[in-house]
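Marked as duplicate of an earlier ticket. Keeping the data here for the record.
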Amino acid sequence: MPLSIARLLLLTTAATAIFLNPFLLTAQRLIVSDPRGQVRLPEVIELPLSEVRHYFSDIESREAVNALTHERLATQVYNSPDGPAHDLLLIAAHVNTSHKLELNFVPKDNAHPIAPLVFGREATERKDDFAWENQLVTYRVYGPALEATGEITSGIDVWSKRVPNFVIDRFYKRDAEGARTHNPALSYHKDDGVGLDSYLVGPTRGCGGTGVFSNGKLWISKNYTHLRIISSGPVRFEFEMTYAPWDVDGVEVTEIKRITLDAGTHLNKIQSTFTFKGPEIIHPAAGLAVRKGADVRTLTKGRILSVWDTPQDPSAGRIGTAIIESLDQDATVGEVESQTLLVFPVRSGRPFTYYAGSSWSKADMPTQQAWDNYLQSTLTQLEHPLKIEWQGKQQP
């Protein structure tokens, strides 16, 4: 029976669409799953960019989409400072109740871009604070201009928030207005319903800062001297700080610290590199402040340090902080000057890695047990990385 003109046109149009769209023709799809068949915490999928280009040579103009729900996922081409071999495609994702996530890669909807999930900047409103955040957490460190005023610390500060919004601009603007109008209620040390800064760093390591442990003492640097941003999002915020040389029990050391905060996590990934001459090994330490009334726990045979801390303002609930040892490290637990530490044996120029972050009882971690469960789940995910499978033909 002859085809009608209308049906012939329909088939011709469909065939042309398939011919012109190599995505439909080869059906490239990424299958991401948990190797244990378990639900996972939100995380960032890392794909070697050289591998992705075998399937999508134009990946810069595409974004990831959940094949089942059609939800658009924040996607970023990450150019590593360590060279092209380390370049990645990053996808903010959540392998939830199905234990599996199927992704398509479609042309970006540039008319409706996905909002960034990370943010950071130097806060010139307060000398040279540097603050960074994702939708869950906010942190800051201190630079040379603040050091010149006498505010000296190389610890990491924590801001608490209960909203999935960026708060850095809001906090600084509000605090500056409070100073201008002499209105203490506008200070970012006061909870306005969004959150506050009620975490005192002082001379401690705060939430994951470093020092060198020697002869029962923690030898610490002053504020960072130089900072450069490596990646500003939308999925990963990453920067590097350099510290001026300082004395460690008669040995001069320097440090370069790289901090990475991804979307969807409470924890910074921190890679620190110390250089020194003389001894074969020194013992840098990553630390957490421990204040009066805090509850300190050592979990998973010392691979996790968890502190359920007391904030400056007693009405501000509790602040959880933690350090997780990276899988390839061999750290030991230490304690000094109201701080709990993970101590790493390192050689000059050899980086060591750990994870450090915070939570708030008035946000998504109401109890210490909830915080500890989160930390243990995070370590389990590090031990069992996602299984990645491509479906479809590679491009010639």
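See parent ticket for discussion. The mean pLDDT is 92.
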